[in-house]
Amino acid sequence: MDTLLYSVDQIRAIERAATSALPPGTLMRRAGEAATTYALELLKGRPTDVVLVLAGPGNNGGDALEVAANLAALGCKVKVAWLGGDGAPSPETQAALERAHAGSACFVDDLTDGESHCLVIDGLFGIGPARPLAGRARELVEAVNRKRCPVLSLDVPSGLDADTGAVVGPHGIAVAATYTITFLGNKPGLHTGDGCDHAGRVHVDRLGVDELQVAGVDAEHARARLNLPPLFAACAAPRRRNSHKGSYGDVAVLGGAPGMAGAALLAARGALFAGAGRVFVAAVGDDGAGIALDPTQPEIMIRPAAGFAFGGRTVVAGPGMGDSAGATRMLAQVLDGSGPLLVDADALNLVAASPDLQARLARHDGPAVLTPHPLEAARLLGVTTPVVQADRLESARELAQRLNAVVVLKGAGSVIARPDGEVAVNTSGNPGLATGGSGDVLAGLGGALLAQGWPAWEAALGAVWLHGAAADRLVNCGCGPIGLTAGELPRAIRAELNALAAQSRS
């Protein structure tokens, strides 16, 4: 898989470099050929029904017209909905338009509801749109999204922001593609936010562009990649036989205030099944009397947070911690301490409400990982959730830089960011994770990896990927995604982590 992710500006730089070294129209012809080959794979031979091609006024439309001409020349039945712009098309797009007109492709003005198509090819706008789709473009997309056939988008589903994964505009619309063939390099917007529901399966074709041209842009600018095991698997080494529980660290979950014991226990179970040597719950309030024992996992030790010795232990602060004065004091204590720290849930909200806690967090003497969901991230940044979701990569980057920590911005295509601006977009997981307690398990998992000596960046990458892979494992076994529960995740996480460690041995 192509793991590097390029912004629109970077892709345009690659395109300019390639265009200057190639005869005019070469890239468009190559894009048309690549998309034609991919379309034929999806069609599984010559179709008996109609292929519908949507072509916009720009070069993305030119790519689509090339595909229409190619498929028609191969004997496919092709209908083209051509959306011309106000100005003249580029010479390359004009040439592709003439090719399509010269062949057997049929140009149509309107789409008929209920008309059967074996494939729709979306080449309306690609990486270009800066405004919400409107007028006939919106009508075409609405009609395509009502169809029940495969949809192949060229480069980027029309109406989707290639950089952010957000649908363009507050009331915008984007093509819901089944497949996307993206050109020259992979794009972050295909893998996070709305992109997860609109891009479908993503295939990258570099169009024969010299790797050195791509690498030149990457060496100077690329700051994003997909989160996959090669980024962190080296940390998942098999265990030595000559080891003991002290070899794998202690995790202390600071949380579990009265009425919220479940969150702390889920985090503790996540840490336990991810291999921490010893796991404690430092229960906030009522001197810990709210939790006496985890009857499912009695290995977890329950202690009152007041007077608990956090030193030398990895602290997971926040699950079910509440917002009491005592919770705030305990959080300040661990922020002022040293050693690995993961901040989640209520602890994030306390930090967001206190400039003093923010300063303490930024000065924390040890590796720190934050795991906010979009609303928590919005509170930390002093903005609204839609602002965070409009650009998830930049929101995560800003938080990481501001608080001097590795940040996991949770959600579809979770974004992991570090203070130097590097980001990764997660590839694992499914909607089954949209359930109460899932984030608590992730927090415990991250704490366990930190306790076992994983650096903060690799611990965050590994925790997010393993968390998603565990959910995928459960779904593949028939457990979800509907009705998947957080309590099912720890054992699946254990299986994924052991499989990862076994692979590192080979």
From TrEMBL:
Gene3D superfamilies linked to this entry: 3.40.1190.20, YjeF N-terminal domain (3.40.50.10260)
Boundaries of every YjeF N-terminal domain copy: 11-215
Keyword NADP: yes
Keywords linked to the UniProt accession: ATP-binding, Isomerase, Lyase, Metal-binding, Multifunctional enzyme, NAD, NADP, Nucleotide-binding, Potassium
GO biological process: metabolite repair; nicotinamide nucleotide metabolic process
Chain sites annotated for binding AMP: K410, G411, A412, G413, S414, G439
Pfam families named in the record: Carb_kinase, YjeF_N
GO molecular-function terms, A-Z: ADP-dependent NAD(P)H-hydrate dehydratase activity; ATP binding; metal ion binding; NAD(P)HX epimerase activity
EC number, UniProt record: 4.2.1.136, 5.1.99.6
Cofactor: Mg(2+); K(+)
Amino acids binding K(+): N60, D122, S158
Occurrences of domain YjeF C-terminal (ranges): 228-500
Cofactor info, note text: Binds 1 potassium ion per subunit.
Catalytic activity: (6R)-NADHX = (6S)-NADHX; (6S)-NADPHX + ADP = AMP + phosphate + NADPH + H(+); (6R)-NADPHX = (6S)-NADPHX; (6S)-NADHX + ADP = AMP + phosphate + NADH + H(+)
Binding site for (6S)-NADPHX: 59-63, 126-132, 155, 263, 320, 373, 440
PROSITE patterns linked: YJEF_C_3, YJEF_N
Role of this protein: Catalyzes the epimerization of the S- and R-forms of NAD(P)HX, a damaged form of NAD(P)H that is a result of enzymatic or heat-dependent hydration. This is a prerequisite for the S-specific NAD(P)H-hydrate dehydratase to allow the repair of both epimers of NAD(P)HX. Bifunctional enzyme that catalyzes the epimerization of the S- and R-forms of NAD(P)HX and the dehydration of the S-form of NAD(P)HX at the expense of ADP, which is converted to AMP. This allows the repair of both epimers of NAD(P)HX, a damaged form of NAD(P)H that is a result of enzymatic or heat-dependent hydration.
UniProt similarity note: Belongs to the NnrD/CARKD family.
Quaternary state and interactors: Homotetramer.
PANTHER family: ATP-DEPENDENT (S)-NAD(P)H-HYDRATE DEHYDRATASE, ATP-DEPENDENT (S)-NAD(P)H-HYDRATE DEHYDRATASE FAMILY MEMBER
Name this protein carries in UniProt: Bifunctional NAD(P)H-hydrate repair enzyme
Taxon lineage: Bacteria, Pseudomonadati, Pseudomonadota, Betaproteobacteria, Burkholderiales
